[in-house]
Amino acid sequence: MQRSTSFACVITCSVALALGAALSAAHVSAQAAEPTPPREDEFGLRATAEIGFTAVLAHEITLGGDGSRIDYVNDTNQNNLYLFLRLQVELDIWRQHIITFLYQPLDITSQANAPRDLTIDGLVFPEGTPIQAHYGFPFFRLGWAFDVLTGRDEELAFGLGLQLRNATIDFRSLDGSLSRSRTDVGPVPLLRARGRFTIQAGWFFAFEVDGFWSPIPGLNGTDNALVEGAIVDASVRFGWRFLPHVDGFLNVRYLAGGADGTGDETPTSDGFQANWLHFLNISLGATFDTRP
């Protein structure tokens, strides 16, 4: 009886093992028969172009320790709407690593009669002198961000950026007898965040923020610890994917920043500068996306 029971147990276990092996083989065969899901593209490319206008909300500058505080809006008629352009290329790697390269020109020229005696880097422009003021601040920006969302239709990314400023500031009398000019090229580190969220039927909302504040020499693009610099570039965007690979959108952007302190001296300047601006950009744009 004991031997029969043992034999029955052996048979039962053998049948169970055989059945298990058969089921496993059937499962593997079924998996092999199923089509392999398409692999996410390793690289995606997007190109964005915007065109619109810039409105100067506030813009003041002082050049030189004994310089006059100049209000660009009231003193030099920087109160028109100016052309705004923005070009950006993005590469995403494995969908979640986003590398961007941006170029944004910024060039404003205005003209007015000096409302009072204006001292600019030690040079006096007498009241009533016809002056041309040129403010050029185009910049290049390289950025990286990581998207914490895994879905293709939505994005929430955080990262870092590096901006290269290329500033030119000129004040000249129209007869050419008086002139002061400053140029400056330097790196500006940035923190960045961006997002894109689907609303419905191809419509979407997006935002983007790049910014930094630094009184630290080297990080603010100067070796002088007395210079404080800051920048914020923030936008909101409403758009619609009207073709499989093309978005159209309306973008509202706030651009602000500047520097305050004493930098490097030049033959015509003691290096002091206080320059702060607040701009509003409204633009229409389009994005071509290689991915659906």
Label the overall shape: elongated
What is the C-alpha radius of gyration, as a whole number of Å? Answer: 31 Å
> Could you say which structural class the secondary elements and strand pairing correspond to?
mainly beta
CATH class of the largest domain: Mainly Beta
Number of strands: 15
Average pLDDT metric: 85
CATH superfamily of the largest domain: OMPT-like
CATH fold node name of the largest domain? Lipocalin
Estimate the strand proportion. over 45%
Unreliable segments (pLDDT under 50, ≥5 consecutive)? Answer: 1-39
CATH architecture of the largest domain: Beta Barrel
Between the first and last Cα atoms, what is the distance in angstroms?
A: 71 Å
Largest sheet composition? 10 strands, antiparallel, barrel
The percent range for helix content is 10-25%
Number of helices: 2
Order of helices and strands: HEEHEEEEEEEEEEEEE
